[in-house]
């Protein structure tokens, strides 16, 4: 089992920045990829960015050049961050972190990001 917990959401003005964090614990040895997804009200959950153990990253077109994903191993945990710059109103959503381990996906509970003046 892998446990995933997000933090760092909040309210930010358009053009501002926010940094999300996600801590994965448990059987982290088996994690081969982690990702951030987001879900706006009434919409499906979409991929924002992902990173593999090999360091390969992938971004949604809408966030390229504005968001940066990074995974940092630490003792008994792996920390996944999402640095979000130049935020727009359309970035408002609940952001979810997940970890893939042995072909299973483990989700966090989500953290709300609201971009509004």
Provide keyphrases for this structure.
single chain, mainly beta, 7-stranded mixed beta sheet, 4-stranded antiparallel beta sheet, 117 residues
Summarize the structure.
It is built from no helices and eleven strands. The protein has 117 residues and is an all-beta fold. Strands 2, 4, 5, 6, 9, 10 and 11 form a seven-stranded mixed beta sheet that branches. It has a four-stranded antiparallel beta sheet with strand order 1-3-8-7, with no helix packed on it.
Oligomer: single chain
SSE pattern, N- to C-terminal: EEEEEEEEEEE
Unreliable stretches covering 5 or more consecutive residues: none
Helical content stands at under 10%
| Overall 3D shape | globular
Protein architecture, described:
By secondary structure, the chain is mainly beta. Helices cover 0% and strands 61% of the residues. It contains no helices and eleven strands. The strands form two sheets. Strands 2, 4, 5, 6, 9, 10 and 11 form a seven-stranded mixed beta sheet that branches. Strands 1-3-8-7 form a four-stranded antiparallel beta sheet, with no helix packed on it. Strand 4 and strand 5 form a beta hairpin. It is globular, with a radius of gyration of 14 Å. The relative contact order is 0.33.
In terms of topology, how is this protein built?
Blueprint: E1 2-7, E2 10-12, E3 18-26, E4 31-39, E5 46-52, E6 57-59, E7 67-74, E8 77-84, E9 93-101, E10 104-107, E11 111-115
């Amino acid at each position: 089992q892998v446990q995933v917990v997000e933090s760092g959401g909040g309210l930010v003005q358009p053009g501002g920045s926010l940094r999300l964090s996600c801590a994965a614990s448990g059987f982290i040895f088996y994690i081969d990829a982690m990702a951030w997804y987001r879900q706006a009200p009434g919409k499906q959950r979409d991929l924002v960015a992902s990173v593999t153990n090999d360091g390969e990253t992938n971004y949604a077109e809408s966030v390229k050049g504005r968001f940066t994903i990074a995974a940092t191993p630490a003792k008994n945990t792996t920390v996944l961050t999402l640095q979000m710059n130049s935020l727009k109103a359309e970035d408002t959503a609940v952001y979810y972190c997940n970890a893939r381990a042995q072909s299973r996906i483990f989700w966090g509970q989500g953290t709300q990001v609201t971009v509004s003046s």
